[in-house]
Amino acid sequence: MILFNQHLRLRTQFLTRSFTGQIQTKKEGCQIQVRDYSMGTTNTAHITETGINLDGRDLLHVETRNMCRCEECFGKFAHQIKNLPPIGNTLPGIKVQEIGKLSEHYVSLKWTDGHEGLISRTIRGDFGPGKIESRVRKWLDLTRRKNSEQEFWRAPNEEVKKIWDYSWVVSSGENTREFLVHYIKYGIALMNGVPAGLKMEDIIYEGLKMGPLWASLYELVEYFTFKPDPTNLSYGTDALPLHLDLPYYYAPPHVQFFHCLENTVEGGESYWADSFAAITTMTQDRPDLVEILKTVPMTYRYTPPGSGVFQLTHHPLIRTVEGDLWRTVDSRWSMDTAQFTRERDLETRKKWWEAYSYYRDLVEDQSSWFVKKLEGGEVVLTDNWRVYHARKEFKITADGQERILCTACMDWNSMANRVLSPEKGDFIFLEIDQH
């Protein structure tokens, strides 16, 4: 005990003297001892039967050992766990043996394997000083797609339809975050005023400072303009019904960018609909049908002749995580209904088509659509796991008319990273030396 306390004093020479309280310590086979420690607030750490209670939060022994933030256990530059002992039934469990000093952000512990370290009490203790703590508090649940932080729209209001000025959005990191928070909340965000000649890569990498882009069968940035006899309907002039892209991937891309370079054709308006709003309405009226769309998968395919491509997958239309709507997968022109009939019995298929028809009636309600003809210099971000996009038929009625859009995709983690992270090159270290 004496050696342990001396070690703690050496490691905490920078401790401020503004705390008071009591510290509990416990050794194997000994009774709990309570001792005074001059630290400023009432101590809230004590050993329990299964671990420790820290500030009213119960932590298991194994969790405390995994939470150690000393430099031996947690990489200073990598912020990854290292040198952890193995866990499993073949070895006796390592337990907290003593609770040492508490500071504002940390508490010192000693475990039965002899290791001495410290765990965090606060978000700042986990991530370090700076703006990360406030961002995590404000936006962590939003970036995790918690529905309580999102706003679903059955009819688009002015906030949903808000158009942001590109120059303002990219003028600072905080402005970029405000724009992206809007996107996550509503599943869609629009910008105008993108300078002519600016490529999609420049907008994403240099302007928004995001990346990397998501690789697929297509180019990282794919350009869509009219082509005769297209191998993808997006290159034609026909209307494209409301859909979510690339359902023939088992993990469809999440964040989708659309950059309009030119749109002088007749028609060709874009429109969008919020699948989560439709599912919420359906859950209230027909929860039995929603359950079918959660559990029975539809088959999707993309097999253009001569391409060497054979993409065949299956997804339930609705996926939830801990009760929150997480992902919708739906593209009518990519359905492989023939394969679906081979994989599902007749009664299951009857129920699925009843549920799907009910759902599509909600999605196809035009009063719920956000309709806009995109103009050159406009960019739209859509949540490809939530917000449908579509295009009305267009015609080329004069020479020189064009409808040119380019698209790119990105993983959700890159979006969440841009919202929560510090700026690149801003080294933020844990404050364990001040404990």
Care to describe what's here?
The protein has 435 residues and is α+β, with helices and mostly antiparallel strands. 26% of the residues lie in helices and 26% in strands. It has helices at 2-11, 61-66, 123-127, 132-143, 166-169, 173-186, 200-207, 275-285, 287-295, 337-343, 346-363, 412-420; strands at 21-25, 33-37, 45-47, 51-54, 57-60, 96-102, 106-111, 116-120, 163-165, 188-192, 222-224, 240-243, 255-263, 266-267, 270-274, 297-302, 311-316, 318-321, 324-328, 370-372, 378-383, 387-391, 394-395, 403-410. The strands form 8 sheets. Strands 9-10-21-13-24-11 form a 6-stranded mixed sheet. It has a 4-stranded antiparallel sheet with strand order 12-22-15-20. The chain has a 3-stranded antiparallel sheet with strand order 3-4-5. The longest helix is centred in the C-terminal third of the chain and has 18 residues, at 346-363. It is globular. The relative contact order is 0.16. The model is unreliable at 1-42 (pLDDT under 50).
